[in-house]
Amino acid sequence: MKLARIRLVVLIAGACLAAASRDVGAASAQGAPPPAPTFVNSVYEGADPFVYQHTDGYYYFSQSEGDGGIAVWKSKRLTDKGIKRVVWTAPTNGWNSKEVWAPEIHYLNGKWYLYYAADSGQNKDHRSGVLESVTQDAQGEYIDRGMLYTGDDIEGLTNNRWAIDATPFESGGKLYLIWSGWEAEADEQWLYIAEMANPWTVKSNRVRIADNDDHLWERVSESAGQRGLNEGPQILRRDGWVHVIYSASGSWQPTYKLGRLSIRDGLDPMIASNWRKHPEPVFQGNARVHGVGHASFPRSPDGAEEWIVYHSKIDKRPGWRRNVRVQPFGWNPDGTPRFGDAVPEGVPLPLPAGEELPRPGGSFSDEFQDERWDDWVYYGYNRGISIQGQALSLDAAEGPGMANHFSSGEKALIRGYYWDDLELSAQVRVARGEEAGLLFRATHPGVGRDAVRGYYAALLPGADLVVLRRLDGPGLTEIARSPVPLEHGLSYRLTVRAEGPRIEVLVDGARAIRAETGGYATGFAGVRAVEAHALFDDVRVTRR
What we know:
By secondary structure, the protein is mainly beta. Helix content is 0%, strand content 49%.
């Protein structure tokens, strides 16, 4: 039973509907103009994104949980990962206890399966494994089906080989597995295929389907003196062709990109000569987008559009700090995919066709007593959000398993609703760091310190200040500030009242700022922490 007191009031065809503990009914905000039906990248933090679009109308996102487990997210929207559940935690010891990479969720033979790579603490020991769902709930319980055999001795099952990025696909009534593997003990990655007896058992020796260095762009650093590297294979079908879209070059470099292998549907995929490699990259970075790779290919909610979901580096420096982007793609007259250019961050794109639009909000409250944040959309480091002591915690702290960590301006917005004139308040505690506060009339949120447009009222305990700012994506304007004694670790009731151009900011009921400004009339409401660990409790919103 949901314990958090949540109340949302909207107009839905004049009817009063009840859902869980949320009341959806009377119209109090129907005059609020909706935000533009657009979004900006990046949509979430992390790498190796895999999205499975199920027949139940939901997207299922699978993601490594800090190298120590697997999370499955469920959403009706492609631009919102939705509700998160950790479905598997790695054991303390054993072959799959460390470095859990690139999980993929698939629905096969009436069950959910999670394919992942892991090791016992050393990369040279990476192998691929499979989890099987116990029920039809993709976010429910899973059993461990064990390690997949990815070597050359299917009879004796000896010398199992290094394997990551395993993905299954069906062809000609048979099930196959494609992955990135080492030939022996040397760190050189090729793409392999094997036939499967069932979703958790390989039944044949592997076959290498292509060389990894046919072209200079496949080599690490695009250097003739470096090794070839192929990984992250994904299946894309069209007009009787099976395309394998794979990642090439080094994932830690800005030269990471996507290539394509293709085979006519019906030809034996276990015969390497049946595969054709496209001589040029099919998708790569540009002056503003670096190191694109590891894609998956869902459709829009209404099925009319095809989208690529991929990760990119946040800058050109070597390393694995990455975020995830989505954009539509099309097809060439010859039936091959045309991905176009990688769209830079902050550039508005139309929402995927059929994606549910936000609705005008009335009243909302959340005390986080159920220790979940299901009603919030999070933009920030994957594990930077949690519930601590029945409060919403935002914190992008450094630590083990945080290779992807970067300053991401952690923010969480109330899912699915927008406001124009409102009163927004919360108990805000800055445990450490720079600042935290309330976002309102916010639009075009994304991952990144400055990736949002709207207004922000913040507490700065280190400076004994309350500030009101206008955020414009890469830029900001300080509207007003006021000196208020503040201490790290103490909780303050921060309140914002916005009516037209007039904005008031109160701390513990006392007005600290009163200002008039223009620019943003409507948008989402939520909370934000910047270079800080902050906790938010008893969040309340009412439309004025």
